[in-house]
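[job 0412] stage=fold_complex status=start
inputs:
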Amino acid sequence: MGILNIITYLPLVGALLILFFVPKDKPGAIRWMATAFALADFLASIYLWTGFDAKATGKNIFQFRFVTDWIPSLGVKYDFGVDGIAILLILMTTLMGLIAIISSFSAIDHRQKEYYVLLLLLQTGMIGTFCALDFFLFYVFWEIMLVPMYFIIGIWGGPRKLYAAIKFFLYTLAGSVLMLLSILGLYFFNSTGIPFLGIKGLGNAATFSVLQFHNIGHLIPADLQFWLFLGFFFGFAIKVPMFPFHTWLPDAHVEAPTAGSIILAAVLLKMGTYGFVRFALPILPDGTKQWLPWVVGLSIIGIIYGALVSLVQKDMKKLVAYSSVSHLGFVMLGMFALNPMGMRGSVLQMINHGISTGALFLLVGIIYERRHTRMIAEYGGLAKQMPMYAALFLIAALSSMGLPALNGFIGEFTILLGAANRSLVWASLASIGIVLGAAYLLWLYQRVFWGPLDNPANRAVRDVNRRELGLMVALIVCMVWIGVYPKPFFDMIEEPVNYVIAKVNGPAAHTLEAAK
Amino acid sequence: MIWSDAIFMMPEIVLTIAASLLLLAPVAGFRESEWSAKWATLFVIAVTAGSVLACSWAVSDMTPSAMLNGMFALDSFAVFFKLLFCAIMALIVLLSDDFLAESRYSPWEYYSLIAFALLGMMFMVSGLNLIAIWIGLELMSLSSYILAGFYKNELKSTEAAMKYFVLGAVSSAILLYGLSLIYGVCGSLNLFKVAAAMSTIVSNDALMFGIMLLGAGLCFKIAAAPFHVWTPDVYEGAPTPITAFLSTGSKAAAFAIFARIFYVALHDFQLDWSNVLATIAALSMVLGNLAAITQDNVKRMLAYSSIAHAGYVLLGIIALNNTGLRGILVYSLVYVFANLGIWATVLMLRRHEYAGERVDDFEGLHRRAPFFAFAMVIFLLSLGGIPPTAGFIGKYFLFAAAVQSGFGWLAVIAVLMSAVSMFYYLRLVVAMYLREGRDADVAITSPLRFVAAVCLIVTLALGIWPAPLVDGAGVSSRAIAVASNVGR
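[job 0412] stage=fold_complex status=done
writing structure:
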């Protein structure tokens, strides 16, 4: 059966049970079922974590393998397996999935059955994407995620939900179909080749196995790597999103319901960075190096641009959304430093960003539920009215801006170390982003929570209730844990990062002419 | 003709007799009995499908089984498509059910024309000789001209039939002229002999002209740009079940002969025609998808989308490799089932003769008909090539074929256009699920529900477990793959 299958399909089972057995006029039962399945999934992923052997090296970093034939005549296998990076992301997915479901209890008041079914379906898609070690399977899960998210934004979103939903769908789809072409290019290079273009294949049995592609990476001619990397780049960079492919993100975030934003920020964006670290870098080492200046340049632009745009936002949710562009610029920068330090920081920062930004979106959602506005100008002096809320917000904001002893600091600091190791210019440009990050978050905090409580509408606002407090405490525990004692997390990703670095810095590729 | 040869043609012989009987049934006193017309037709189709299976089993060890001096073959390729056509026609009969009940026209004539169209399709996929193929094509086309104008008193239907007939006749003539030029140069119309003759010819203007005319005629039949102009008008004007037939059965048959002719007879001339067809494919995908975006009428939208789908299938022909060949078979099947499911939903919305055709008419469908709305989402995702629907498997093959054959630029256009196509497919989803307020007007009948359920099961099952389809397509394409040296 395989523990990975259980973790992947448990939410699907829950979705189907709700769909067929719970009537839609019983929202309480629906919520209860959804929470139960999400919780069971989270516990199962913790069990997965405890059973993982972080010491394994080389190919053995991929554990809990489950391999069986799917479409034998094409060489497509149903191949599941996870390394430390994937496990951390799965843990975050199941945790954020649970939080997203619980946070929706009071926010979603119509078409609840469809809503929880779609959230659970989305979770199956996300976990499957992290588990897949077969490119065909990966692509299937990757695309499956689109549909539930499209509906979640489109049905339960804000005023411009239709525009945001379709933009999200089309942007991501356009990137992923180009990625599909690169996958096909790898597939044919590994087997028959592309005779028409004079590209001789390796003549291996046809397969979509990612591990096989990891092994042949250095055999791919440099010219071919250039194009294949471009295809992967479009697929992943749109998802990350990197500047200038980020324009779908603010729309999707602002219009999505709170739970949609949490999942989007915490998990869906990580699909892009995960894609780079799992596929694009180790399979196409030479393509990575050819495109490196561009990717790094766009990352640094993203860091500074995202922060500057955040600074001028009038809408809290939009501010947090643009801060994601900036933070994911850091993740990309650390990864493309192509040294163990930078990549470790980059992977950890994926988790950190999920927790911190997820927490911020949750907090924005809490206040939006009470006041039905996210405009910063509507607020002021909230600390007097909602002291608990103000404290939680402060912790989340500090974590997001990278205050020592909280998680963001560890990630950003490691990334900067890695980047500085490669080039001091990169690191110093990126640190501008940190300064700006502190600026927009603190300024936001100042405008919303301090000053006089002069808007009468804010005088009747309740502080957070126990359910909301519980969700935030869970996230804050993670922030402090990673901030104070990140060793278990670094241990998890040590070997996977070494594996990727070894592939990227392996033997150089031949040119197309030499390969002929 | 030797008597033992008759077994190859037994399904066609059975169907000819049965279709004629259907036409004669009203004379024999069954005129009033509309109910029995439907069941009689379904019975005929079932018997035909059964005889296809029985005959293919009986001649399984005789491939390539050609009879009538190499005119006609019952190879695995033909069997695949014949069974597919039988399934399509059975579903079309079910779709036609209450459309006929509302109109005052004789169902017997209608169903016998359906049976004759099926006969033409079955004949053409078995043809190994260009004239045999052409005769089958004409039988199918003539039946569909009449069916398109079956609403004799509706202006739109008559106009559609007239346009379809005039343009169709011209394209048939062009096709025939192309065949005559090929015959003049090659000295034979048998596909294998044409291929053999072509392998010795270096270049020849008359032959090139003939091939181009042949290609133009076939592109008209599959509705590829720039030979597509008839499609939106005919799809819009024809009675909806007939539109369903034109967009599935008639197209799949044209894909089949397109593949057979180009793979078997013209493979040595690939360099001469592949770039021309690549341009046509690119044009069809771009024009079809972009034009579909602006349509408010669902029938016209699907007409433009079918132009785009013709462009995708052309990828499989241009590629001229095994992946492309299998892709044509797989894609024909998945496209047919997704499309028929959509037509079932459109028919369900039809209250009067042409209502239920606007995108707005779908608003609020998820409340009135949750099953149909859900099925419709799956069908639209399948047409857009999103996993885990069968449409993804079809698109995968065609894109893979284009990459493998080195047409990278065409593959890039194709994948981007398939992303664009989701824009207008999602318009229907938006109307069904995302817009509140109106409630769609529906008339759910059990045949429509049956058709939608069958299509839904096929689309989802083959998307999640595609191995049987992929293997089946591999087996079915073997005869042609051997003939055209694309074994791998």
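[job 0412] summary: Residues 511-516 of chain A have pLDDT under 50 and may be disordered.
[job 0412] exit 0
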